[in-house]
């Protein structure tokens, strides 16, 4: 079963769809791994508004500086 890495920026939980496990971490921005869950569990958390799916590649600073919300684009990132 596929595993999904859930990251935290200190206040919100999200996934980085186009990053691998190590590349999503950014200690200066306080982006760290919160947990690793099954794909089914990630879908459940997303449907209940606990996590956001973030896709795209770019400067992760915008993920810390802006509040994440569904159907929102921040620079090169799309938040669902």
Question: Mind explaining what this structure looks like?
Answer:
- The protein is of the alpha+beta class.
- The chain has one domain (3-79).
- It contains two helices and six strands, in the order E-E-E-H-E-H-E-E.
- It has helices at 39-47, 61-65, and strands at 3-8, 13-16, 32-38, 51-55, 72-74, 77-79.
- Strands 3-1-2-4-6-5 form a six-stranded mixed β-sheet, covered by helices on one side.
- The protein is globular.
Concise overview:
With 80 residues, the chain is an alpha+beta fold. 18% of the residues lie in helices and 35% in strands. The protein is built from two helices and six strands.
Radius of gyration: 11 Å
Average pLDDT metric: 91
Total tally of structural domains: 1
Counting copies of identical and different chains, the oligomeric state is: single chain
Described by the principal axes of the CA atoms, the overall outline is globular
- What portion of residues belong to β-strands? 35-45%
Uncertain runs: none
Q: Spatial order of the strands in the main sheet?
A: 3-1-2-4-6-5
Tally of DSSP β-strands: 6
Ends distance: 22 Å
Order of helices and strands: EEEHEHEE
Structural class: alpha+beta
Largest sheet: 6 strands, mixed
Could you estimate the helical fraction of the residues in percent? 10-25%
The number of helices is 2
